[in-house]
Amino acid sequence: MNLAARSVSVTRGAATLVRDLSLEVEGGTFLGLLGPNGAGKTSLMRVLAGLEAPASGHVLYDGRDAAEIGRRGLGRTIAYLPQDGRIHWPLPVEEVVALGRLPHGSAAVDEAARRAMAAAGVEALARRSSDTLSGGERARVLLARALAVEAPILLADEPSAALDPLHQLEVMALLRDTARRGAVVVAVLHDLTLAGRFCDRLALMKDGRLLAEGTTAQVLDDAHLADAFGVDAVRLTHAGETVVLPWSRRS
Predict the structure, then answer these.
(1) Which tens digit of pLDDT belongs to each residue from 106-144?
(2) Residues near 176 by beta carbon (within 8 Å), at least 6 away in sequence
(3) What domains sit in the chain, N to C, each tagged with a CATH number?
(4) Which GO terms label this protein's molecular function in UniProt (predicted)?
(5) Per residue in 179-212, pLDDT tens?
(6) What SS3 class is residue 101?
(7) Model-level pTM?
(8) Are the beta carbons of 153 and 78 closer than 8 angstroms?
(9) Is residue 200 within 8 Å of 179, Cβ to Cβ?
């Protein structure tokens, strides 16, 4: 599977949120989408997910656009985890996760739903009502729902934001492993250390434009961090990996 944005722009009224952005992600790749607040990351993700059409440009899924694939086909092609983390009804957790099977014609708690719960570490919550979950538990349940689609493209908007350190590491490892099995995985991330450690490639946005795309070393260099975030970073080496820590406001 290949996911490609071609000269995509997104507008809201008079405001342009994404400007003529092109980006391509091959199957087997975990891409971290970075940028300051208001950079246009969520707007881009919604267009990549087929939830809204761009003002200009287009998105291709293995060379086909959303109209060619159709709504039902798109539902099986893309799993999308939004950032709001809401569950609208007090359903048992296993039934929430099983909603990920709807694009395949059923919302039964099948083997795919059970695999997703196991992968996200929420098997023990299966019979719990979703309105009794903590924020972190709810985030992992919603990730399980996205995994249950078993789609070749997984888009996750801030999947680690509500999680404690252990579950952040586990979720990032799970997303990386999902890509290793051949999926396209794109996640909006704010933690530069996690992004640099787990992602295969990074894309950095600023003011709706793509500022940099490439490896951690290429994207999280001093110039890009200063330009996008206005910060200086400290770089450490641990277990053979470079760790990037935002450290101070750029003077």
Answers:
(1) 989 999 999 999 999 999 999 999 999 999 999 999 999
(2) 30, 185, 198, 199, 200
(3) 2-249 (3.40.50.300)
(4) ATP binding; ATP hydrolysis activity
(5) 999 999 999 999 999 999 999 999 999 999 999 9
(6) helix
(7) 0.96
(8) yes
(9) yes
